[in-house]
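>> received
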Amino acid sequence: MTNVFKFVTLRTGPRSLLYFNLLEVMPVSNEIRQESRQIAFYEGEFLVKMLESEEELRQAYHLRHRVFAESLKWVPKVADREEMDMYDLWGKTVGLIRDDGAVVGIARLLPSSGQFMLENEFGALLPDGYQIRKTSDTAEITRLAVDPEIQDKGLSSKMMLALLKGIYQWAVENDIRYYYLEVEHRFFRTLRALGFPCEMIGEPVILPPAGACSVAALYDMVRFDEENAIKKPRLLNWISSIETLQGEIISGRTSTYSNCERMGLVSAAV
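>> returned
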């Protein structure tokens, strides 16, 4: 089992005690906290990477609080303005980092080795009898957000697309085919219009406490690649091409990339 003190040292005050007690009741095994393969690439003026340092994660928790507690009111506000929950014990966070070091976008990804939010908080979105996939090729997208203080809608949309590219590339790197996600119904429609073939699970539900009309959906990476190879080839080419931190351009990083890489069939394109 994982040493519980490692997580608690990131927090001080009453909430540390809360998480310490939670971990005593529900210890987290090393299998649940399994390491994932990392991603890091440039997208325009932004760096897209897995957040690892304490400072990066604190910025992510603060951004989550501004979005999900202060703006959307999905979760209660807390005094330190850092939104955290037990899923952070095994979740991996993709961050969008500005050139001044500010974290301005986030997406937390939950591997199937741990619990999904869909199994607990968002279970009301599932129809009776639905069986959640918990195989190694499945993960869950949670806490997807960009900085709400950015008023330029064009820039905000660009940032969200960069995050979606990070989510896609993390899946490629970690052999993920399916993503669950729980979003407002209007954002679900936006994703589909952009070319992300998410399939709704059940019907839209009004969830407390914010009263948001929300849906659960399943996103199939292979279907995304197959449909956009025909319908939106520019989108597929963009999302499957990255600029590494060394300035190298790698293209063709689709859902079949990992298998091809292992067979030595992938090469860099300049």
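>> The chain is about 35% helix and 25% strand.
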